[in-house]
Amino acid sequence: MDTVTLFLLVQFAFVSSITPGPNNLMLMASGANYGLRRTVPHMLGISLGHSFMVTMVGLVLLQIFDAYPWLNTVLKVLAVTYMLWLAWKIANAVPPEAKKVEGKPFTFLQAAAFQWVNPKAWFMAITAISGYAPQDKGALYGSLVVAIVFAATNLPSITIWAWMGVQVRRFLGTAKRLRVFNITMAILLVISLYPLLVH
Length: 199
Fold this sequence. Notes:
The protein is built from nine helices and no strands. By secondary structure, it is mostly helical. The mean pLDDT is 82. The two termini are 32 Å apart. The chain has helices at 3-18, 22-34, 36-67, 70-91, 108-114, 119-132, 139-172, 175-191, 194-198.
């Protein structure tokens, strides 16, 4: 991979990783509700899980989707259903009359598995593989290069969102304010489905 292409890939990975999306909204909510330390498995699951997804997209999945286009529709239905359920869980993370946060933060495996129903993660993976993976050394090499760049760029980017959630928690103070924050995050998560629904 030449230097210019590598620079453009890093730029794409950074911009797509740090801009709002389902992962970042969930990390912000997790940081606010559970703190940074308890959110670390969630962050690692996103970063490493997405890198694995990128590798699989490069090696196998693009060919499968070309052969069976109906799988795209199945994926969209699963993604929308799961994201709506997650939005409901986020909105109800704090009971109305209590300061104790209900539920648990995402585990590493849950966060890694979530990438497969995350529309933005699919967009990032497919765009990176089709636009930046070097083609001259085989699919495995190209997929791994893109995956490694994403892993190195993604983790610092998403950490900022979890940290922002922790900072937001300091200003919320009461269960009522935290409840409003969680409902807002849930609504934004649902809004993030818009590109998936219109294409």
